[in-house]
From TrEMBL:
Protein name per UniProt: DIDO1 protein
Organism: Amazona guildingii
Gene: Dido1
Pfam families: SPOC (PF07744)
Domain Spen paralogue and orthologue SPOC C-terminal, residue spans: 2-130
InterPro entries registered for this protein in UniProt: SPOC_C
């Protein structure tokens, strides 16, 4: 991550689960509006099944009027890692993704997909068009 520029820094908050400072890094897609459209605090409003997200992503990828953008969140400091891992564990143990509740103008839907460093990249997200 040290070779990549951060595109955003702020909080991720899920009531009664975790709140932490994080940085976002580009993975794939267009990032033109993200730094201004992501709020200071990303509020996670709930959970969603992976199947629902993958069905939606499949439809999105075939749309000419919509873009899929992938970013990676990483704890801003070592002290933030405990809360970051708590949120990851919460979604991973339940087999669910996170749904962001406070999207802005250019961002229609935003999901948090818990991936460990050993998990393969889901095929629905490939190919990457960006730094990867």
């Amino acid at each position: 991550l040290s070779r990549l520029n951060t595109i955003w820094k702020g909080f991720i908050n899920m009531q009664s689960v975790a709140k932490f400072v994080t940085k976002a890094y580009p993975v794939s897609g267009c990032f033109d509006y993200l730094s201004e459209d992501l709020p200071d605090t990303i509020h996670i409003g709930g959970r969603i099944s992976p199947k629902t997200v993958w069905d939606y992503v499949g439809k999105l990828k075939s749309s000419l009027s919509k873009e899929l953008c992938l970013i990676r969140f990483h704890p801003a400091t070592e002290e933030e890692e405990v809360a970051y891992i708590s949120l990851y564990s919460y979604f991973s143990s339940r087999g669910r993704f996170g749904v962001v509740a406070n999207n802005n103008r250019h961002i229609k839907d935003l999901y948090l997909i818990p991936l460990s460093n050993k998990d393969p990249i889901p095929s629905k997200l490939l190919p990457f068009e960006g730094p990867g």
